[in-house]
Amino acid sequence: MTPEALMRKVSDSFAKADLKPLFDAVDDNIVWKSGSLFEGIFRFGGVYEKRIGVFDVTLQITTVYFFRKIEPIEFVSAGDVVWGLFRIEADYMPRGDVNAPAKCVNFTSAIRWRVRGDKIVEHQAFFDTAGLLVQQDEYA
User: Is residue 13, in this structure, part of any structural domain at all?
Assistant: First the structure.
């Protein structure tokens, strides 16, 4: 499978709340860099390593965001590297307040993978962190 085909498969499944294709594609020694490398800005900020790190970060992301739509805009690949640009719509559930209403957030994310042998060995995501925080009423 090409790196682009793998990213399409994983993103299509993630949009349907099916994480199995992602977990199947993760290399045992993956390095996963979150969209915000600083811990504390977002619950899932930082660098995660190995398969257990991917389980940890996806748990943190999916307990705060329910993804309504992940729409691919563009894929670009060269060799073992693939970039994807996605339009994302999600419900954000504020931390610590189970009675608070969810807030709809919209943002664009760029994701870069290095793929070897149908396995993701590097992941890095980029998005407008300030814009997302404003939508979540967490930044003024």
Answer: yes
Range of the domain at 44: 3-135
Structural domains of the chain, count: 1
Model pTM? 0.87
Domain-embedded: residue 140: no
Match 């389980």 to its residue by tokens.
55
For every residue of 52-83, DSSP letters joined together read HHHHHHHHHHHTTEEEEEEEEEEEEEETTEEE
**Per-residue confidence in pLDDT tens, the chain, 140 aa:** 999 999 999 999 988 889 999 999 999 999 999 876 655 666 677 889 999 999 999 988 888 888 899 999 999 999 999 999 999 999 998 775 667 788 899 999 999 999 999 999 999 999 888 888 888 887 65
